[in-house]
Design goal:
About 40% of the residues lie in helices and about 5% in strands. By secondary structure, the protein is mainly alpha-helical. Helix 1 packs across helix 4. The longest helix has 20 residues.
């Protein structure tokens, strides 16, 4: 985990932001067509896939689009920021999350895909 990159992303946001430190996690996520907004729904998914690091619905659209174009095993991945914890306490920091995700993706592309 490159903390200087994450610190630069955090400090680059010009508006109010959460007080917690940015961290990066790599791992499997569950994705589906519905918003999960209850602790009980999350708790019913997690035991089936104990290595999950998150749940989202936006990635589902990405994978579904790849599948609809004939990709049986889509070669896509997602990178996103956590906005809430799939419970009743929804948080509306989507603009900040979009910024942090896009900046992390920009770093990933520049550092690992364009560096040849």
């Amino acid at each position: 985990q490159n903390t200087s990159v994450l610190n630069n992303i955090y400090s680059g946001w010009p508006a109010s932001k959460p007080s917690n430190v940015l961290r990066a996690h790599l791992g499997p996520m569950a994705s589906g067509p519905s918003v999960v907004a209850s602790t009980s729904a999350f708790n019913s998914i997690f035991p089936q896939h104990r290595k999950l690091i998150g749940i989202d619905m936006e990635s589902y659209a990405l994978f579904e689009a790849a599948r609809s174009f004939g990709c049986l095993e889509p070669k896509v991945f997602t990178m996103k920021s956590v906005v809430d914890f799939a419970d009743e306490n929804k948080n509306d920091i989507h603009d900040y999350a979009c910024y942090t995700s896009s900046q992390a993706f920009k770093f990933f592309v520049e550092e690992y895909l364009l560096r040849n």
